[in-house]
Specification:
The strands form 2 sheets. A 3-stranded antiparallel beta sheet has the order 4-3-5. Strands 1-2 form a two-stranded antiparallel ribbon. Strand 1 and strand 2 form a beta hairpin. The protein is an alpha+beta fold. Helix 3 packs antiparallel against helix 5. The chain contains 5 helices and 5 strands; from the N terminus they run H-H-H-E-E-H-E-E-H-E.
Length: 181
């Protein structure tokens, strides 16, 4: 058991408890004053430069971490989309009687060769075209909506049949669904 000097003086009767408490209060008061003095003392230019460099490094590190997190999140989204497409894509087997289905993707006309039945399903909206890393696949609309929630740019929206405007000179002429251009 270790006895402090204060305990030994108290046992010897050289100091009273009141004196000890008063000494403790004065000691803690001095420490507070020293801390306050240290905190309020003007910083040297080296200290300011060091603090500024630390703050800049911390900001740079936060920015790098955000970029890494964004890249990681994007990879996860791409993996999820790839998995959805691979699990739910419409099976296509190339044959000689396939017809081209033309669609627009990022201001370019793309062509997808499909069977007549698949062409009708796409035209009816029962299959949706999805860009899977440059390969266009066909998936059901429910899966396309899940993909759209993760990355809307991967789902190819086909033009919908809109009501022609009143001043359209070709409003009386219907364009057939099976028209291949």
């Amino acid at each position: 058991m270790r006895n402090s000097l204060q305990d030994q003086l108290l046992k010897a009767g050289l100091v009273s408890k009141d004196k000890l408490n008063q000494a403790k209060k004065q000691g803690s008061k001095k420490k507070r004053q020293q801390r306050a003095k240290k905190a309020s003392s003007p910083m040297t230019p080296e200290e300011k430069a060091r603090q500024q460099a630390q703050a800049e490094k911390a900001a740079h590190d936060r920015e790098l971490n955000q970029q890494r997190d964004e890249v990681r999140r994007q990879r996860e989204v791409n993996a999820q989309v790839r998995q959805l497409v691979r699990a739910h894509r419409h099976a296509r087997t190339p044959s000689d009687d396939d017809v081209p289905f033309n669609f627009q993707n990022k201001d370019k006309i793309k062509r997808l060769y499909v069977s007549h039945d698949t062409h009708k399903l796409i035209s009816a909206g029962k299959l949706v075209i999805v860009n899977d890393n440059g390969v266009f696949e066909l998936v059901p609309p429910a899966i396309a909506e899940k993909i759209r929630a993760r990355n809307p740019s991967l789902v190819i929206d086909l033009p919908s049949d809109e009501e022609p405007s009143a001043d359209d000179p070709y409003a009386d002429y219907q364009v057939p669904d099976d028209l291949i251009w």
